[in-house]
């Protein structure tokens, strides 16, 4: 295995670096050494520590954040970009396993028989300027039947469901439908919002990535983009709610095309991208910023980092 001196920064507080998705994937092919002075730094958008590093920097995000190639040399993110320095990786890839939504052993009739509730909705935050459409749709659909809202916002079930993905999936299981709208509509930006109801075998009502049909079988979920209006989509939901056979047609459809995980789940695809990163000799963009304010602090930062200790692996250089 090729030895790599690497570090991860700006992922928020209390992150175990060895539990980060990219660490686990890269460890399959490379001998990773967490280092205070890394040759390669993977950073997220949770802070500015990455500005103090002058090695090769890889931006990483599962949200709608766009890479700034004035700050990074490469990018692994959800958004779709036509740039050889970028690898598209939807958020659900480092969120769950493809086997969770493969349907080859499903009994559709049995699953439907356990669906005792109509529709669910989970939202923790709300900005009417950025994501008001999902709340508007929730309110419109609620005129037909009560839509159970289990999040912190617009809660109507007596209190929010427990935190964590598994709690949400458990909440979704008895429902026939789930409103799974993204925060934004961007090419490639697909999160766990569609993946969680798929795990729960709950028919997703989706809005977001304009190219979602390339990632998942469009006959296995309801896509707002396929309907002329909210009202037209609601008419379809009502039709499926009142016709078990038509609902089962969706439930029997595989989520993946041909029930085969899409290309974004390929570990080799990710590893080959990093093979290119570690093999190419480049001048990191961060080195051109040495005269910036943060660059002038770099010398002092090295002194601080000298006494920093990774709890699971001591520095190696």
Secondary structure blueprint with pairings:
Layout: E1 2-9, H1 21-26, E2 30-34, E3 40-43, E4 56-61, E5 74-77, E6 86-88, H2 108-113, E7 117-121, H3 128-141, E8 147-149, H4 165-172, E9 175-181, H5 192-199, E10 203-207, H6 212-215, E11 222-223, H7 230-241, H8 244-252, H9 267-279, H10 293-296, H11 298-305
Parallel strand pairs: 1-2, 1-3, 3-4, 4-5, 5-6, 7-8, 7-9, 9-10, 10-11
What does this entry look like structurally?
The protein is an alpha/beta fold and 317 residues long. It has eleven helices and eleven strands.
Question: Briefly, what is this?
Answer:
The chain is α/β, with parallel strands linked by helices. The chain contains 11 helices and 11 strands.
The number of E-state strands comes to 11
Report the portion of residues in β strands.
15-25%
Strand order of the largest sheet: 2-1-3-4-5-6
Helices and strands, in N-to-C order?
EHEEEEEHEHEHEHEHEHHHHH
**Distance linking N and C termini:** 18 Å
